[in-house]
Amino acid sequence: MTEPVVSFNRVTKRFKDLPAIDALSFDVRPGEFLTLLGPSGCGKTTILRLIAGLEAPDSGEIRIDGRRVDNMPPNRRDVNTVFQSYALFPHMSVFQNVAFGLKMKRVPPDALDQRVRATLQMVQLEGLAERRIHQLSGGQQQRVAVARAIVNRPRVLLLDEPFSALDARLRKQMQLEMKRLHRRLGITFIFVTHDQNEAISMSDRIAVMDHGRIEQVGTPQQIYEEPENLFVARFVGEINVFDGEVLQVADGALEGRVEGVVLKLPGRRGLKPGDRVKVLLRPEDLVVTKEAEGCDQPHLKGRVEELIYKGTTVDLIIRLGDGKPVFATEFFNEDAASISYQPDEPVCISWVHGWEVILPDEG
């Protein structure tokens, strides 16, 4: 098995006696794009600072390529960081900013020039080498910060919400460019964001964090389709959470009552009759049928409250009889007229058996 490039073993870091991260253990694989995803204050940036050597852990071990680095100074760790603020030198040109780290390492002038220009070409800034930082757009400044970080070819590149200052269009563009750069360089990227769409679109794996702990680590598909608890399910994408109760368990399958309706559910180890459960379904997994057209399978009943047109899809807000809102996404096909609902129109809600996620009721 390949040795992890970064390894945390029961690492704890406190600020004013409050744990920013608490006995945290995880590994980062060589060459992967790992995203730390979670709300503000959950410990994401603290992890980056611990890896970079800008903070020291209160307990536990941090290793890079198998070597313990807990007390090693930042300049002896083979990592570079792209900060949220970029932290560029305004009095220097683009070329000088990117060359700064190489000069500190006393790289010979010819080799320095070659590496800087090759890196600027890689981030599409080769024509702006002599410009000052104040003459650049936000996206160009972000590229300079990335170029300065990768010119040394670090073992690990740390990125602390580097797109937060960019507008939505430019942010999308930079996400694509960063993925291309990652594939080209083969460097391990550890990326911090609170934007779930950004994490899903860019990552090889995602670590979802809350209150200094990792709640789940997995591929974007695993995190989205197979959340291990309600926090992950609710934080990553929109999801409907239905109340249910296990009625019978037989042959690895369940019969349950969901919002008062008896239906078949996928089996889950450890559940028994009488257990309370949560049944989770994404809006795009729901099938909405007009009650007037007939509903031929077990279903929940509700009434259309709102319809939101989004071009290729329509979002429906449906209110169940007990007042619970349900969010459904309908995709346009050849028969666009089929997605036409009236306010307060009665509808049936069903789904394909097996698309549900069943979790024990944590409350």
Report on this structure.
The chain has helices spanning 44-52, 94-104, 109-122, 138-150, 168-185, 196-202, 220-225, 230-235, and strands at 6-15, 18-28, 33-37, 59-64, 67-68, 79-82, 156-160, 188-193, 205-210, 213-218, 240-250, 253-258, 261-266, 276-281, 286-290, 300-309, 313-320, 325-331, 346-351, 357-360. The strands form four sheets. The protein has a six-stranded mixed sheet, with helices on both faces. Strands 13-12-11-14-20 form a five-stranded antiparallel sheet, with no helix packed on it. A five-stranded antiparallel sheet has the order 15-19-16-17-18, with no helix packed on it. The two termini are 39 Å apart. Helix content is 23%, strand content 36%. The chain folds into two domains: 6-235, Rossmann fold, CATH 3.40.50; 240-360, OB fold (Dihydrolipoamide Acetyltransferase, E2P) (Beta Barrel), CATH 2.40.50.140. With 363 residues, it is α+β, with helices and mostly antiparallel strands. Helix 2 packs across helix 3 (109-122) and helix 3 (109-122) crosses helix 4 (138-150). A hairpin with a 2-residue loop joins strand 4 and strand 5. The chain has eight helices and 20 strands.
Structural class by sheet pairing and helices: alpha+beta
- Low-confidence region ranges: none
Main CATH class of the largest domain: Alpha Beta
Under the CATH scheme, the architecture of the largest domain is 3-Layer(aba) Sandwich
Whole-number radius of gyration? 25 Å
Number of strands: 20
Q: Can you give the helix content as a percent range?
A: 10-25%
In percent terms, what proportion of residues is strand? 35-45%
Name the average pLDDT: 90
> What would you call the shape?
elongated
Kindly report the oligomeric state of this protein.
single chain
CATH superfamily of the largest domain: P-loop containing nucleotide triphosphate hydrolases
How many DSSP H or I helices? 8
